[in-house]
Write a structure and sequence with these properties.
It is a single chain. By secondary structure, the chain is mainly α. The chain has one domain. The protein contains 7 helices and no strands. Helix 1 packs antiparallel against helix 3, helix 5 packs antiparallel against helix 6 and helix 5 packs across helix 7. The longest helix is centred in the middle third of the chain and has 41 residues. It is elongated. The chain starts with 22 loop residues before the first helix and ends in a 13-residue tail after the last helix.
């Protein structure tokens, strides 16, 4: 009689994408953070011809330059969402509600930024299609309204929402010690400063981007830049939150 010996089937478990303490997620998040700087700073400089010229629509414009600046702001909006989505698999283990809130706040910020982008592109379109053919005073008023709309989106998007982002992500990192606590502390301290500056600007007691309002943005900028570099070059620290095989 012939007998057969059964051999246990060998199974190969798929590789865990969260191995190495989430290093890949941290690096991706850091790259997205630095990308927001690489896109937003040149965009702000390139938008000067339309933001500071109330007669842009009826005068000689820099339409190509402004369009490229709007595209960079679009990249900035997407990169902002990327900063939250990239780290979500790690920080949700700290507090899933805060982690989800961080993703949603970044999405709200991106949406507000895009409203400003559309407003400026509408001004460019008016300049290209109607300059010299329509009533100059009407065009000037419309252009001023569109630029003013963008100014308000800048206050509520990169302004107020940056405070919310810092509180949510900073709290997650401070609690978990995934990075040195001094880094999220900068963001947590800078958030109320920037929020106060935004409220003053909202009610006409300060000018965004000038004087004390400009100084109030420095802690948040320092926090975002430092967390970007740290996540790229150091990743997340080894903690129970990054032990995905536990």
């Amino acid at each position: 009689m012939t007998t057969t010996t059964a051999h246990p089937a060998t199974s190969h478990a798929p590789a865990d994408p969260t191995r190495n303490n989430g290093r890949g997620y941290a690096r991706a998040g850091g790259i997205f953070y630095l990308l927001t700087f690489a896109a937003s700073i040149p965009a702000l400089l390139m938008l000067d011809p339309i933001l500071n010229n109330p007669d842009y629509i009826v005068s000689g414009g820099h339409d190509t330059q402004v369009t490229w600046a709007c595209f960079l702001d679009f990249v900035n909006a997407l990169a902002g969402i990327g900063t939250a989505v990239a780290v979500f698999p790690v920080v949700r283990r700290v507090n899933e509600s805060l982690a989800l809130g961080f993703v949603m706040s970044r999405m709200v910020e991106a949406a507000v930024i895009m409203i400003g982008v559309v407003a400026l592109l509408a001004a460019v379109t008016l300049h290209q299609d109607y300059a010299g053919t329509a009533d100059p005073s009407t065009l000037t008023t419309t252009g001023h309204a569109l630029v003013t709309s963008r100014d308000w989106t800048f206050l509520f998007g990169p302004g107020f929402m940056a405070c919310v982002n810092a509180v949510l992500f900073g709290s997650l990192l401070y609690r978990s010690r995934l990075v040195p606590r001094i880094i999220p502390t900068i963001g947590l301290l800078g958030a109320p400063l920037l929020f106060t500056a935004g409220v003053l600007a909202l009610f006409g007691h300060a000018t965004p981007g000038q004087g004390w309002s400009m100084l109030a943005t420095l802690p948040i900028a320092t926090w975002e830049l430092s967390i970007g570099f740290y996540m790229i070059f150091k990743g997340f620290r080894s903690t129970p939150y990054t032990d995905f095989h536990a």
